């Protein structure tokens, strides 16, 4: 099952919760929202091995141009990190 978590790396309070609602409305299962340890610029999308092809179909919906890297920890298929 494809699941995603959203981390707020923007420093803007509530950004991940707002994005969670938008992504849920697209029919994507969001299983968690958290705050990233560091602030980032742009958006990052980390993907667990085996889900790359599925995620490539969702890049535009997730407002990401490419996959950032391989997700090594956790149980979700992907982690979207929001930045400024």
Structure, described:
With 84 residues, this protein is α/β, with parallel strands linked by helices. It is 19% helix and 30% strand. The protein has 2 helices and 5 strands, in the order βαββαββ. It has a 5-stranded mixed sheet with strand order 2-1-5-3-4, covered by helices on one side. The radius of gyration is 12 Å and the shape is globular. The relative contact order is 0.34.
Provide a compact summary of the structure.
The protein has 84 residues and is of the alpha/beta class.
Q: What key phrases describe this protein's structure?
A:
84 residues, alpha/beta, five-stranded mixed β-sheet
Please tally the helical runs, counting DSSP H or I stretches of 4 or more residues: 2
Helix content: 10-25%
Secondary-structure element series: EHEEHEE
Low-confidence stretches: none
Largest sheet: 5 strands, mixed
The count of β-strands is 5
Q: Strand share of the residues?
A: 25-35%
Shape: globular
Computed over alpha carbons, the radius of gyration is 12 Å
Distance between the termini: 30 Å
Name the average pLDDT. Answer: 96
* Protein structure class: alpha/beta
């Amino acid at each position: 099952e494809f699941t995603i978590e959203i981390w707020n790396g923007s420093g803007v309070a509530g950004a991940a919760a707002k994005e969670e609602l938008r992504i849920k409305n697209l029919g994507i299962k969001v299983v968690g929202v958290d705050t990233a340890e560091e602030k980032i610029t742009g958006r990052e999308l980390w993907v667990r091995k085996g889900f790359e092809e599925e995620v490539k179909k969702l890049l535009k919906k997730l407002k990401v141009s490419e996959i950032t890297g391989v997700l090594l920890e956790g149980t979700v298929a992907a982690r979207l990190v929001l930045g400024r």
